[in-house]
Design brief:
This protein is of the alpha/beta class and 488 residues long. The protein is 42% helix and 14% strand. The strands form 6 sheets. It has a 5-stranded parallel β-sheet with strand order 4-7-10-1-11. A 3-stranded antiparallel β-sheet has the order 14-16-15. The protein has a two-stranded antiparallel ribbon with strand order 2-3. The longest helix is centred in the middle third of the chain and has 21 residues, at 308-328.
Length: 488
């Protein structure tokens, strides 16, 4: 930064030409597109849907609104707009708001330029400081956003209240030359939303009845949840009319996109010497649990199920594995079905239930969602031409030996904290189970193969081919008819 101009005279001599922030972002995005650079790297699943719409808005120099349910990367996307800002821009040093030295917009800025001329000190506003964000809450005031009269300044300097130099500017004017974002826009009270109308259209505003004409150079973006479930408020129609683009976000369109998101976002590095192994099968089950939640009759679909849920679920599964390995003394751990069921705390706080779900209870609903995910993946593997959500009873000829072993009265109990060697030994008792797992999951062995074997038993139980009993510290699998006789 030391080589940058430090006075207005140096700035003029450098050939600097001012440009509005929208022109700046548009120009830098055009450069990125021509160079085929990734647009919004790290935002997964939006390449063909949301991102093109955002690009269109930027190229058209439009303010825009991202409308979507929780956990759809809305905030991350708007924060990524800073990638298209210049490294730094000049501002008047000492001004109350960031002002371009060649285009001062406040009385203070114009006065400083007039008094100092080419000797006017110049500061530089870096890219990281050119993004401002406000979470809309019902207690936000016009003074917070626009500003208010500062009576102490007026009295001390003997200025009239109509003088612009007595204004204490709010966050919007202080975001001049910046990107300004309002999250959860419907939560702003309607009378506060009205205060944004002139800023978006005419670039002027009023403070305490005094009209202020100020050419604010600002790029405004907003986020909101769908109005059909936001009971706290709505976006007023005139404001929606002034926001040029409304872009609809969505959850991952494919299971693969969902898995890529949880791979990217979930905490994976942990201090210690334990090796935690989570294969593709369990990543599939974790993301499928989120899909089942979004389609469940027990869950309020209008409120959505955040992408944070499967991320948190993966992290909690890792913790369950870590705890088991610490208790058993194993130096590594592989994911097990029991780890999923022990991690329902990652689900219970992230789904809103309808009345039917409340009757069942959140814990039972969470277990049901995991069971549905297991069933879906199992049926995809073993039912020809299987379609999601179909519930007829299927025959599974591949498991004839396995089912016969249970029909003979054998029972399998798997403790949640069973050491890995004992876990593999117990599963190996079930006739035909290892062979079927090796055929469906070729190349897997050791802990991964044992996890696949347990998954197959759980899949049979979710299809009512076996009876499953959830014990205090483990799980028991048995033949359904034999279990009924035992109960008698």
């Amino acid at each position: 930064m030391s080589k940058l101009p430090r006075t207005l005279g140096e700035l003029r001599a450098s050939g600097y030409q001012p440009r509005r922030i929208r022109e700046e972002i548009r120009h830098n995005m055009i450069v990125a597109l021509r160079e085929r650079r990734p647009i919004f790297p790290g935002i997964i699943g939006y390449d063909e849907t949301v991102i093109p719409q955002v690009v269109h808005a930027v190229l058209a120099e439009h303010n825009f609104l991202l409308l979507g349910q929780r956990g759809q990367a809305k905030t991350r996307l708007i924060r990524s707009l800073t990638d298209f800002l210049d490294d730094a821009v000049p501002i008047i040093d000492g001004s109350l708001v960031p002002e371009d030295p060649l285009r001062p917009m406040t009385p203070t800025g114009r006065r400083l330029v007039a008094e100092a001329g080419d000797d006017l000190p110049i500061a530089w506003l870096e890219r990281a400081d050119r993004y401002q964000e406000k979470l809309a809450t019902p207690d936000v005031t016009i003074a917070d956003l626009i500003g208010d009269i500062d009576p102490i300044k007026a009295m001390s300097r003997k200025l009239d209240f109509s003088n612009e130099e007595v204004i204490h500017y709010g966050i919007v004017p202080r975001s001049n030359r910046c990107i300004f974002a309002i999250n959860e826009l419907p939560d702003l009270q309607p009378r506060i939303q009205v205060g944004l109308l002139n800023i978006l259209e005419e670039r002027d505003f009023q403070i305490r009845g005094f009209p202020i004409r100020m050419e604010i150079d600002i790029f405004m973006v907003f986020t909101a949840n769908p109005e059909d479930y936001t009971n706290r408020g709505n976006i007023i129609t005139p404001l929606k009319d002034r926001i040029e683009a409304q872009i609809i976000t969505h959850y991952p369109a494919t299971l693969e996109d969902g898995i890529a998101i949880i791979r990217q976002e979930a905490l994976s590095h942990r201090n210690g010497h334990l090796k935690l192994h989570i294969g593709d099968l369990f990543l599939h089950l974790i993301e499928q649990t989120a899909i089942e939640a979004r389609q469940s009759d027990y869950v309020d679909r209008g409120s959505g199920v955040s992408a944070r849920m499967p991320i948190t679920l993966l992290e909690t599964v890792r913790s369950a594995m870590e705890r088991r390995a610490l208790l058993t003394g194993d130096d590594s751990a592989h994911a097990r079905i029991c780890d999923l069921y022990q991690s329902i705390s990652a689900i219970t706080g992230k789904v809103e239930l309808v009345y039917k779900g409340e009757q069942e209870g959140i814990a039972k609903v969470a277990e049901h969602l995991i069971g549905r995910a297991v069933r879906e993946r199992f049926n995809e593997l073993f039912v020809p031409n299987y379609r999601h959500g179909r519930d007829p009873k299927y025959e599974f000829p591949e498991f004839l030996e396995v089912l016969q072993w249970f029909e003979a009265g054998n029972v399998l109990e798997l403790a949640d904290t069973m050491p890995q060697a004992e876990f593999e030994k117990e599963l190996g008792r079930v006739t035909g189970l290892r062979k079927t797992a090796q055929a469906k999951f070729p190349g897997q062995k050791g802990g991964e193969l044992a996890a696949a074997m347990e998954f197959l038993l759980e899949g049979l139980a979710q299809n009512f081919m076996l009876t499953k009993f959830r014990l205090t510290t483990g799980t028991r699998y048995a033949d359904e008819l034999f279990a009924m006789k035992a109960d008698d």
